Amino acid sequence: KAGVTQTPRYLIKTRGQQVTLSCSPISGHRSVSWYQQTPGQGLQFLFEYFSETQRNKGNFPGRFSGRQFSNSRSEMNVSTLELGDSALYLCASTPVQGAKLFFGSGTQLSVL
Amino acid sequence: SQQGEEDPQALSIQEGENATMNCSYKTSINNLQWYRQNSGRGLVHLILIRSNEREKHSGRLRVTLDTSKKSSSLLITASRAADTASYFCATDGNSGGSNYKLTFGKGTLLTVNP
Fold this sequence. Notes:
The structure holds two protein chains of two kinds. Chain A is mainly β. Chain A has no helices and eleven strands. Chain A has strands at 5-7, 10-13, 19-24, 31-38, 42-50, 53-57, 64-68, 74-78, 87-94, 102-103, 107-111. The relative contact order of chain A is 0.33. Helices cover 0% and strands 54% of the residues of chain B. Chain B contains no helices and eleven strands. Chain B has strands at residues 4-7, 10-14, 19-25, 31-37, 43-50, 55-58, 61-66, 71-76, 85-91, 103-104, 108-113.
C-alpha cells in the first residue's frame, strides 16, 4: 500500500498570498488530520476530517481552512499568509479514531 | 497548551547504551502513543499503550505507563546511530467522537554517537 502523500514538498510564498496544500491518505483511511510544526510551538493540531466532514478544529484563526473529498483526499488552505505561518505542515491518516496515525513527509512552507 | 511534555529535551549517548525518555501529561487518557521523527520528515508511529496497560514491548522498545502519576517512559535498548531522531509522546486526552484529537509534546532530541 502506498503511504500518505503530501504535495508539494517545499513551498515559498510571500506575505499576503494564499496557499493550498494537498494530502492523499492511505487507501481505505477515511480520517485525515493536519498538524502544524514549528520550532517554537512544536506540533499543533489544525483539524481533522472524516467522510468529508470536519470533526474537530484546533485553535487557529479562520485563515486556516480545509476540506476533504469523497475519495478521502484532503486539502488545507491558508489565506493572507503571515511570516509566522512558516512551518512544516503534516498530514496524517488513520482507519479508525484512536488508532495510530500514519504521517506524510510534510510540506515545508516558507513565507517571506 | 501541550498535553504531553517530554523530558529531557535533548539526550546524547554512545552507541550500545540505553536511552530513556519520559513523558508527563495533564488529563486522563484513553491511550498514549510514541512517535519518532527524523529531521524535517514525517512522524513514524512506534508504539501505542492503552490506559489499562502498564508496560508494552516492541523489539528494542519498552514503554511504561503510570496513569496515577500521569507519566510514561520510552526505553530504547542497545541504541544505534540510526536511532538518532526526535521522539514525541502523544495523548488523546480522553477525547472521542467530534472532540477527538492527539496532542503532542515538544519532543526529546536523541543523538546516538557512533
